[in-house]
Amino acid sequence: MDIRTGLPPRRALLTAGLAVAVAAGALSGCSAAGAPKATPAAPEPRPATPEAAFARLMAGNGRWVSGDLEHPDRDPQRRELVAQAQHPFGVVLSCIDSRVSPELIFDTGLGDLYVLRTGGQAIGPVVTGSVEYGPMTGGTPLVVVLGHQRCGAIEAAYKSLRDGEPLPGNLQAIVKALEPAYELTVKNPGPDPVDTMIHHQIKVTADDLRANDDLGPLVKKGSLGVVGAYYSLDTGKVAVLTGAPA
Predict the structure, then answer these.
(1) Which residues contact 174 (CB under 8 A, 6 or more apart)?
(2) Fewer Cβ atoms within 10 A, N terminus or C terminus of the chain?
(3) What span, in angstroms and rounded, lies between the C-alpha atoms of 17 and 11?
């Protein structure tokens, strides 16, 4: 104590401050540099059956609807894990619509899904072959044909076919691919013919994939499910129309 000022000597203050700093540094080192890094959680096993894959997707859609998202498989560790090989558990054929992103709608991540997007889920040989790739080469157990509310491609095709006015350029190829759904709609248009046609297009496409020469045997064997589903832009919910695994 300095008799004149009533304060501790300067040397004592410096010594005490140094001791505090060393202690703080030691604690900091223990909690940061010295502490072992957290081990990333092991990835959830890939669903091996149509039922398990379907349940995984629908659980993810439930989180999308509620907002309780997990954002799984979206980090550097996942990127490194799938860099050399991929084993997606589902194939989703959806529309090009900017509001319909399967990875978001089903709360999935990198390496979880094969995703194909065409106007109105229109298919042809290249698209069908792309859908077949996962099930035929890697045992992917589920295919989902995902149509959606207020589909602009189907609305344009409906009006083109109804009015007999072809669309410009290669857009007419989409119209041609959607003709079967349009013909079904003409027979029973319902209160909203465009939405009726959307539902028909989902079912026609799913039925065609389910029964084709390559996927059909896998469906009969029970190793593949082909689901037709409708996505509501208003609610975010996916409703199954056809082919839900038992």
Answers:
(1) 118, 119, 120, 122, 153, 156, 157, 167
(2) C
(3) 10
Q: Which residues of 8-33 are buried (b: 16+ CB within 10 A; e: fewer)?
A: eeeeeeeeeeeeeeeeeeeeeeeeee
Nearest to 107 by CA among 84, 131, 129, 90: 90
What predicted TM-score, i.e. pTM, was given to this entire model?
Answer: 0.81
Phi, psi of 126 (to 5 degrees): -65, -45
Structure tokens at 202: 């989902």
At 239 the three-state DSSP class reads strand
> Can you list the alpha helix ranges (DSSP code H) found in the chain?
10-31, 50-66, 76-82, 102-105, 125-138, 152-163, 171-177, 179-187, 193-211, 216-221
Q: Quote the CA–CA distance of 14 and 29 in Å, as a whole number.
A: 22
One pLDDT digit (tens) per residue for the chain, 246 residues: 444 444 444 444 434 443 434 344 433 444 444 445 444 455 678 899 999 999 999 999 999 999 999 888 888 888 888 899 889 999 999 999 999 999 999 999 999 999 999 999 999 999 999 999 999 999 999 999 999 999 999 999 999 999 999 999 999 999 999 999 999 999 999 999 999 999 999 999 999 999 999 999 999 999 999 999 999 999 999 999 999 998
